[in-house]
Amino acid sequence: MGEKVTNKKYVSAGIALAFADFKKDHPSIVFSLKDSNIKGYSDSLSAACVVLATTYLNHIVENFKRRVLYYLSLKLSMIYPDMAKGLLYKLAEDYCWEIITNGNPEWPIKQFDLVSICKTAEVSTLCDELREKLPLPPTIGILASAPSKFVPTLSFIIAKIEKLAASCNDPKKMPRSFPLMPTPSLH
């Protein structure tokens, strides 16, 4: 725009008019100044950065378990190729997740026959491999207090999924990846 941004106590008329038009189309964007001490551009930018950082951290906390279970289900489908996805997800949640969180793992005996149970060593190895990548057990309390510590684990999972996708020849069976952080938008 050709203007130098400085920390002024006022906003230029051009920006104010452009924002007024934008505010008509998107009324939810309005921020009340009554509840804050925003005095200039840098204060607004700081507030936006705090909101964005909070969004990123919440994204990790809210999606961590689902992403780990998805990854475990993918790996379990390689161990049990003929098993239904729902059963693999149940095995991932009831057995693997409990191992990872130091909980009480329960093998879903009703759904798995004796031949399937013989592969428990492979399943345990999968769980142990992922547990070694975790800095702490991923309970909700620990995730909420230190979500950034789990970013390397998510990066490891994404890399493994991308490797599986690269080696997959059938587009219908190709595993889908997920972003490490949310994609910000102005919706």
Helix and strand content put the structural class at mainly alpha
The percent range for helix content is 55-70%
Radius of gyration: 23 Å
| Uncertain stretches | none
Proportion in β-strands: under 5%
**Average pLDDT level:** 82
CA-CA gap between termini: 24 Å
SS element count, helices: 7
H/E topology pattern: HHHHHHH
**In one word, what is the shape?**
elongated
The tally of beta strands, per DSSP, is: 0
Instruction: Summarize the biggest pleated sheet.
Output: none
Structure description:
This protein is an all-alpha fold and 187 residues long. The protein contains seven helices and no strands. The two termini are 24 Å apart.
Summarize the structure.
This protein has helices at 13-25, 41-79, 85-100, 114-117, 120-132, 140-145, 151-167.
Topology:
Elements: H1 13-25, H2 41-79, H3 85-100, H4 114-117, H5 120-132, H6 140-145, H7 151-167
Q: What key attributes describe this structure?
A:
58% helix; mainly alpha; 187 residues
